[in-house]
Amino acid sequence: MDAHINHLHEGVNSTVTHLRQVYWIPRIRQRVKVILRKCVNCRKVTGHAYQQPDPPPLPKERRRLCWSYVGDIIKDQKRRGFIERRTENGNQSNRIHYIPHHAVKKDSSTTPIRIVYDCSCHESPHKASLNDCLMSVPPMLNDLTGILARFRLHKHAVTTDIEKAFLNVELDKEDRDVTRFFWLSDPSDPDSPLITYRFRVVLFGTTCSPYILNATLMKHFKLNSCKNSRDTEKRPVC
C-alpha cells in the first residue's frame, strides 16, 4: 500500500514495476489488485439510480377498526328502520341501482366516522349516475339576506335543527331498489359474504333530497294549520 501511495496512486502495472525493482513477491499482480481495491482514492464510483425504499406495511387494525365503525352505523340504521335487508325474489319489476359508499373520518368526538353514499358515481363514462336520473329543483331555501336581517332584528337569536332530517322522510316502495348497497355480513372478515341493503327513507346525497325535505315540512305546516305554523310558513325553512 505504501508503494502505491508513494507513486501517486498509479495503476496495477506501474505499481508492480516499482515493487519488482526492489522485491520479488509471488503473485504480486493479484496482491496489488487487492490493495488497489481497498484504496479509497482509487476506488471506482458506480452510480445507481436512486430508489425509494419500500414503505412499511400499513397496520391492518386501523382498517378493521374503520370497518367496525361502519358496521355499527349500518346496524344502527337497520335497527331504526332507515334501511332494510333486500332479498331477491322472482317478482322483481322495479329499477335496480347499487350505490357505492365509503367511510370518511371526521375530527369529531360524537361521530368520528360517517358513511358517504356517492349518488353521482358513474358505472362508465357513457352511463348516467343516479343523480343524473333525478330531477334537480330549487330546495326552497330562504333568502340569505332575509336570514341575516332577522338574525339581527332582536336581542336574542334561536336556532334549531332536526336530527337526521332526511332519514325521517319515508321513501316510496317502488323507488327503494335504486338505493341498494352492499355491506359485509361480518365486518371483521373482509372475505365474508355480502349482504344487499336498501334505503327505506330519503338519503343524503341525492340532488332532490333538499327539496323533498323542505316540501315535506311545508306540507305538514299546511295540514296542521295553527297560528304558529302559519307564522312559520311565512318564513320558509332556512
Describe it.
With 238 residues, this protein is of the alpha+beta class. It has two domains: 37 residues, no CATH class; 174 residues, no CATH class. 32% of the residues lie in helices and 10% in strands. The protein has a three-stranded antiparallel sheet, with helices on one face. A two-stranded antiparallel ribbon has the order 2-3. Helix 2 crosses helix 3.
> Which consecutive residue ranges, at least 5 long each, have pLDDT under 50?
none
- Oligomerization state: single chain
Number of strands: 5
Taking all residues together, what is the mean pLDDT?
79
Approximate shape: elongated
What percent of residues are in strands?
A: 5-15%
Major β-sheet, in short? 3 strands, antiparallel
Protein name: Integrase zinc-binding domain-containing protein
Organism: Mytilus galloprovincialis (Mediterranean mussel)
InterPro entries: DNA/RNA_pol_sf, Integrase_H2C2
Pfam families: Integrase_H2C2
Features:
238 residues; alpha+beta; 2 domains; 3-stranded antiparallel sheet; two-stranded antiparallel sheet; 7 helices; 5 strands; 32% helix; 10% strand
